[in-house]
Request: fold
Amino acid sequence: MKKSTILIATLFSVALPLTSFAAMDHSDHGSMDMGHGGHGMMEMGDVAHQEVVDGVKATFKVINMKEHMKGMEMPKGMKETHHLAAEFQDAKSGKALTVGEVKAKVQGTDKVEQTKELMGMQGHFGADFDLSKKGKYSVICKFLLKDGKVRNAKFWYTAK
Ligand SMILES: [Cu+2]
Reply:
């Protein structure tokens, strides 16, 4: 009798953080901006940059939201024009790495900086940026994955 009580208590203490994490993940998805609901983001847009950084293959896509949201209403007052999506894989095994902290700094030729945290969603990390000015933008992405290493990737994106 006592033994089973302890066992149940142990099970609960293990299970609880997991469920709360899952619940948090869900609410994140619910509050996510459009584009993360129905379709897989990574299937849209072209690969803007891909590189292997210290054993991790990083793939970046920059998605022009207007182009991909044809027929859908853009939320009023939204100045973000592009969605930056980042996907990470173990370069050796090809296994998707979906847990981590990802930040990106986007800077245009006008030197205006936009730094945002990329949120985990549907197997990739993403955030929206304002790339409404035509021209070159530098994108610097800093990502900390489960192995505890901080990696960087940098590329240029030209907004047309
Ligand atoms: Cu996304």
About this structure: Helices lie at 2-31, 65-68. The first strand starts at residue 47 and ends at 53.
